[in-house]
C-alpha cells in the first residue's frame, strides 16, 4: 500500500514560505533576474521542492515590498524599467524623508547624535563593492547604507512615520541598485558625509536640501537608464 505524505502544518508552511521568500529576494537583489523577467510559480515550486501555495505566498510578499509585479494573467515578474513606479517612489521619498529629517534634528538627543556618528562611521568603512557581488553594491554596504539613513530619521521619535520610511526603502532598494550600474562615478561617500555633518550641526535647511539632492540623483540615474 502506498505511503501517503502528510501535508505540512501551518508553522511548517510558514517556515517554508519564509525560506523561499528570502531566497527569491536575495536572488532579485543580486541581479540574478533581469528587469521584467518572469517569476513562474510552477517552475519555482519544482526548483525549491515546495508546494505552489508556498511559492505564491512568498511571491505575494515580494509584490507587497515592490520587488515583484503581479501580472494581469495572475503571473509574477521582476519589475520592468518601463514601470514609472520608481519615479513615483522617488517623489514620495523626497516629500517625506526631509520632513522626518527636520523632525530628527529638532527632537534628536545626544544619544541620537552618537548613533548617527556610529552609523556613518560604519558606512564609510564598509566596502561599496566586493568581488563576489560583481557590479552590484555589497550586501554589507547595502545594510550599512540602510542603517545610516534610518538612524538619521529615527530621532523624529514617530514609529508610524518610520514604518512608512521602511516600506519606501524596501520598495526603492532594487531601483537604487540598478541605478548604481548607471553612475559608478557618483561620490556617495561625500554625499553621506555632508548629510551627517549638516544633521549634527543642527542645520535642518541644509540637511534637507542635501537629502533631496541625494535622493534626486538616484531617481535621475534610473530615468537615464530607462530612456
Automatic annotation (TrEMBL):
Entry annotated with the keyword Transport: no
PANTHER family on file: GLUCONATE OPERON TRANSCRIPTIONAL REPRESSOR, TRANSCRIPTIONAL REGULATOR, GNTR FAMILY
Keyword Cell membrane: no
PROSITE patterns named among the record's database cross-references: HTH_GNTR
InterPro entries: GntR_C, TF_FadR/GntR_C, Tscrpt_reg_HTH_GntR, WH-like_DNA-bd_sf, WH_DNA-bd_sf
Keyword terms: DNA-binding, Transcription, Transcription regulation
Name of the protein described by the UniProt record: GntR family transcriptional regulator
Amino acid at each position: 500500500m502506498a505511503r501517503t505524505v502528510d501535508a505540512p502544518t501551518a508553522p511548517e508552511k510558514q517556515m517554508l514560505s519564509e525560506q523561499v521568500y528570502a531566497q527569491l529576494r536575495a536572488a532579485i537583489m543580486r541581479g540574478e533576474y533581469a528587469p521584467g523577467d518572469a517569476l513562474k510559480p510552477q517552475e519555482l515550486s519544482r526548483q525549491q521542492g515546495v508546494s505552489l501555495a508556498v511559492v505564491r505566498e512568498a511571491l505575494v510578499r515580494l509584490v507587497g515590498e515592490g520587488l515583484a509585479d503581479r501580472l494581469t494573467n495572475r503571473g509574477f515578474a521582476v519589475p520592468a524599467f518601463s514601470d514609472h513606479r520608481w519615479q513615483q517612489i522617488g517623489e514620495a521619498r523626497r516629500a517625506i524623508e526631509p520632513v522626518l529629517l527636520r523632525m530628527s534634528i529638532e527632537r534628536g538627543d545626544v544619544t541620537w547624535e552618537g548613533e548617527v556618528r556610529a552609523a556613518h562611521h560604519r558606512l564609510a568603512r564598509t566596502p561599496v563593492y566586493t568581488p563576489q557581488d560583481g557590479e552590484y553594491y555589497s550586501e554589507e554596504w547595502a545594510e550599512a547604507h540602510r542603517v545610516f539613513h534610518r538612524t538619521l530619521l529615527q530621532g523624529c521619535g514617530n514609529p508610524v512615520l518610520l514604518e512608512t520610511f521602511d516600506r519606501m526603502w524596501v520598495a526603492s532598494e532594487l531601483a537604487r541598485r540598478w541605478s548604481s550600474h548607471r553612475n559608478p562615478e557618483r561620490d556617495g561617500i561625500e554625499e553621506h558625509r555632508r548629510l551627517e555633518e549638516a544633521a549634527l550641526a543642527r542645520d535642518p535647511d541644509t540637511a534637507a536640501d542635501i537629502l533631496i539632492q541625494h535622493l534626486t540623483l538616484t531617481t535621475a540615474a534610473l530615468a537615464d537608464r530607462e530612456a
